[in-house]
Every structure is written in C-alpha cells, then in structure tokens.
Design brief:
Largest sheet: 6 strands, mixed
Structural class: alpha/beta
Number of helices: 21
Strand order of the largest sheet: 10-11-12-8-13-14
Distance between the termini: 56 Å
Length: 797
Amino acid sequence: MDSKTLRILEYPKILDKLASYTAFAPSADLARRLRPTSDLREARRRLALTEEARLLLAASDLTIGGARDLRPILEKARRSAMLEPHELLDVKSTLASARNLSRTFERLAGEYPLLADLAAQIPPPLGLIDAISRTISERGEVLDSASPELGRIRRDLQTVHDRLMSRLQRLISDPKVTPYLQDALVTMRGGRYVIPLQADFKGRIKAIVHDQSASGATLFVEPLSVVEFNNQYRELQLAERDEVRRVLTLLSQRITENTPELEHMLEVVARLDVTFALAKYAEDLKAAAPSLRPIRPRKGRAHPGSVIRLREARHPLLDPESVVPIDVELDPQTYALVITGPNTGGKTVALKTVGLLALMAQSGLPIPAAQGSELSVFRSIFADIGDEQSIEQSLSTFSGHITNINRILKRAGKRSLVILDELGAGTDPQEGAALARAILAYLLERSVTTLVTTHHPELKAYAYNTPGVVNASVEFDIETLRPTYRLTIGLPGRSNALAIARRLGMPEEIIAAARAELHPDEVRAEGLLDEIHRQRQVARETRAAAEEARREAEALRAELAERLERIEDERRAVLEAARKEAEKRLEALRAEMEALRRRLKRARQPLEVVEQVEEELEAVEEALLPPVERRPAPLPAGTPPPSGPLRLGARVLVPRLGARGVVTAMGEDEAEVQMGALRMRVRLSDLQVAAGEPAPPEETAPAEAPAAPESGLAPSPGVELDLRGQRVDEALEELDRYLDAAFLAGLPWVRIIHGRGTGRVRAAVRDALRRHPHVASWEPGGEGEGGEGVTVAKLGR
C-alpha cells in the first residue's frame, strides 16, 4: 500500500488506537506495523480470525496472561551475558503463558480453528520452565536446590553464622564486657559482624576497629575471638556468590541456545494478542465484518468489477455520538463517484471514510458500518486530499495537488481505488474544470475505481452524461444555514447561493437580478433538484417515523415477552414448590406404610390392605413425578418467531440457566446443547433460538455438531419411554423393543420414566440397561428431570 496514502487517510491513528488494546510491548509494536493486504484470501482469513476472537472474548476472559517483553533479555542472551534472576523469571512467565494459550486452543480447536492454527505455532517450552522453577524462587532468589554445591555452601554458611552469632551474643551478655559497650547489640560493618564499643574504653577489649560513629563516641570493633569465624563466614559468602553466578550462567546458556525458538514464541504470542486487540477494538467501534469481494473485470466493458457498498458507515476517528452515518453504494454499472456540495459539508469526510474503511477491512479489522456492507479488496489505494494532516486543516497548494496526482496516475490500475479531493481546485476555474474532466476521463479509460469531490459545475454534467459515473451530494439545510453531512447518491449538489443570500437578508431586487442573469435551463434544473431533494427529505422523514414506530413496537413486544417470562417463572416456581411438598408428604406416608408393614409382618397379620394402599400411593406419586414444564410465551398475532428454526447447529438460549449454547443432537421433545465445556439435555420447550444468531444453512451443519441421520435410518421412536404402571415383565419387554428401535433410529440417548414406587421396576430397568448391547452407559435423572424416578441411557453405535 502507498505509504503517503496511509498517512493522508490517517491509518496510523487507527493503528495507535489498536495498539492501546494490546497487553504488552511486542504486540503494541506489531499492531503499529500492521499493513493492509491486497490478497483476497488473506484479507478474508484476517477478518475471520478477528471474528473468532470476538466470539471467544464474548464467551470467556482469555488473555495472554503473564507474557513479558523478552526482546531486551534475548538480546542480552545472544551476547552470552549472564541473566539476572528477575529476567529468568520473566522468561519463565512468558513460557508459561504461551504454554497455557497452546493448551487452551488445543481444547477449543473445534470451535475456534483459525485461532487454534495460530496457537499451534507456539513451540514447546523446551524444559526451560522446570529448569527455571528448580533454580529460582518466585521471589527471585536462587534456591538451595539449584546445585548440590550451593546447597552444601549454604548449610556451612548457616552453621558458621550460628556459631559466630552465638559467640558474639555471649560476649555482649558478659557482665564484664557490657559496661564498655555503647549498646548490647551485634551489627555489621564492611561485611563483618562487629559490636559497638564506647571510644573511652578503647583497648579494654582485644579487637580490630572497623568503623566509628559520626560523633566519634562509638567504635565498631571485631573481637579477636570471632575473627576466624568472620573469616570463614566471609569466605563462604564469596563461595556462595560464585556458585550462584555459575548456576545463573549455565541457565543463561540454555536461554542463549534456544533464543530463535523463544523469539518465534514471542512473535506468535504477540500475534495472538494483536488478534485479541482487533476484536476488542471492533467491539468498542460496534463494527461489523464486511463481505470482501474479488475484483473481476467484466469482459467487453470498462467497469473494473469492483464493489463498494457501505451501509451506515461512520468515520472511526470521529465522535460516535455525533458523527452522521453515510451510505455509499456504487451500482453494477458505476465505478466513479463525483461528490459536490458546500464547504464543510462532509465531502472530504465521506472520501476519507470510504478509503479508511477499505484499509481497515484489508487489515482484518471489522468496520464501523452496518451488516451487509461489501468491499472489494484493492491491490492499491491512492488518495490526494488537501488536508493531509487532519480533517480540519486547510488545503494544500495547487502545485502540490498536481505533483501527487501525477504520481497516482502513473501507478493506478484496474485493481486500484483512487480518491481525489477538490479536483481542479486552486487555479483558474475554467482551466481547473477542464483539467478535472481530463483527469477523470483518463482514470475512467483505464477502468480505475475513482471517488472525487469538486466545486466545478461542469463535472456534474460530465458525470450525468458519462457511463460509469454517478453524481452524489452532501446536503445543506437552508433554514439553519448548516450542512446536514448526509450523502445522497444519484443527485448533484445544489448551489444554494441565492437561497442563502435571501436567507441572510439580501435585498430581493438583487436576488431577482442575479436570477435573471442565469440561463433558463439552469433555473429549471435547480428547481427540479430542489423538488427532488424535498421529496427525498419527505421520504426520509416518513421512513424514519416508520422505523421509530417499528422500534417502539419491538420494545413493547420485548417488554411483554419479559413480563410473560416472569409470570411463567413464578407459575413454575409455585407449582414446583407444591410438587416438592407433595413428594415430601408422600415420602413420609411411604415411610409410615413401610413401618406398618413391618409391624403387621411381625404380628403375622395379612398385608393385602397395606399393598392396596401402596398401589394407590404409587399412582398418586406417578401423577406428581413430571417436573413443571415451561410454556412458551405466546407471540402477538402475525408476529414471526424471533429467529430461525431450531435444528442441529443452531445457537440457542437456555433461559433457566441464563446461558447460550449450540444444539448438538435432537430428539422429539429434547435436545442436547453444548455450552462451553458443559453438555446437557434440555427440553425443546425450554430452548429459545438466540436473537440475532441466524440458524445455519440447511445444507451445512457446524463442524462440531454430529452428522444428521442418514436417509437409511429407521424412524425415531422418540427420546422418552414411560413405563409407569406396568409390571416388571411387561416393562422389560417394552424396554427391549424400544431400545432396538432407538438404536436403529440413531438416537444418541433416551430417557426411561419408571417412577419411584417400590423400586422393583427401577431396579429391573437399570439391570437390563447394564446388560443391554446397545447401551453404552446410564445414569439417574438430574434435578428437574425426575431424579430417581427417571433413568437416562446413552446409546452406542
């Protein structure tokens, strides 16, 4: 890409914003070096990578962890210098972070394949993490276990230190010595332990003087009785220092040997962090990934085959609260746009918006525009904009324009996008208009996609009469005398000079005289343009009112649905509480019946009455067994469902858990939903297709979803079998038939309802499941599924 164009379109400011989202210096530097690609496949890969990162960060708080900027450390290691303990800890922290990222994406490879491919480039830790951990503590201290010699030295050092301190303590505690001391304490001077002696008693203790206080009243002396201990202690300290250096040098050599691998690891971690930064920046911009299209020249036509379709596009560097979105769309017959309108009306901003958004898309950064936007991937983008420093600066000179335009004309081709601001300005109007037409014609002959702004009315007529070119204008409000910044495709800008003069109080006779000087065709054309603009304004206001009404209706519908959800939650809570209370009472009654049975049995009384009561009790329990199901909230008449149909691969919301997931298997009444690392069965009535998440196309299911049953499979018997009220032999016979049918239909799991009762049917069912060849495993029903009254069996193929 042309470096001057990148600067003119303020692309470096986008990179600075991007760098502010990175986590450490290498990724910030990498973000500032990011450049647009002209390769369609690479641009699409970058955007897809960013979109994966947006999905990942929406579902987790994954970061690069404790990665550090190792570049100065690796440069030091390359010179074979010894690394300090804190530097080695930085290496360890970065290696651990890289290892965690690698393991995380190995686990998530099915959901985020592009990120997993990038993380797979991280080299293994090479044993350095363990080596550093065995050598250096988290506080940056070299451990005794770093080497056998260091451990021995430190043990000897401790022994000598203890003996030295013991001797000094006895000395300062001696009643004969204490009167001579300034304080009864042991201190250190010059690396040797000493005691504070009053200067007046110098010579009373045989000692070596090492220092004195500032007043001279205290001498710090080393008694001759501890000189040998101090010597041993100092020698061991020096030996410890040398051994620590030897250990650190050996560890540093390992870093030096693996410097290329560590540099590559740092680069991959930085690339992952830049991808996360792209995702965070896109979220803050409320950006959307555009569809990137190839440039396909059309045979026998001048049109280069480029596509520019931006909907509600916003300049990313302007205040999002005040910027006016614009729509820029070139139809299949158009590849040049001529924008006219008043100064400060937004013409230059419109040009910069298109150019900058094209650069962002080709860099892998979603653009601040609505869904459905499309852009071609241009081989090169050129811009000549007078305000090269910023939008508010003044125009450059005519000669500067021509020099830059001449450079652009030499380099632009069919796969280029050329943006020219104020074409033909800065010189004689007649010559400037002629030059502007000639430049635009030159670019059109060479099939170059071109966007220009101008004040020359001749270019309006040229655009109207030339195939492939279309007029556009920025609007101006005559009432407020201020621009609206809206871009209108298909209409040239109006002069507005006479209208503005009248609005500002110019005498009417002067206005009439000026109008009489105009050619009648120009007056009629201006009148037609005024009428068209008025009609467009009426249509825009009508459309805005309709959109506002639609939004209000949607808000009311959402509020109603939320209220119905709350009511349904309260209904379920009340009924569930009643069901659980009934279960508790039944359990208590069952316990009483069992106690009565035991007493009657001991008394050798008949049990027929008790068994009859038990059967009635079991019937009551089975009626209470099913949990309270959620009833779907009714939609208003004529209102379509909020999203697509529920099928394999659909993204769904589980309101009961407040979680989102993906449907990985389906039965008649239930579905299996993957929510992160959790996979669970949920009733279809408890699922909602996630709003704003379109269901996948019918012909392609997500990679993580199991394949749909082949056409040769038997019809499904349903995922639920109810055996309540049956005897054991009847239940087992029906269970066997059902399992065969479920297996042939390819069901992944089934739910058998047998009730609690006396437990005989439950025990028989579970024993049969344990021995059945089609059953891989089984488990009791979960909370809300019926508990011990239900058994869930997973089928194996």
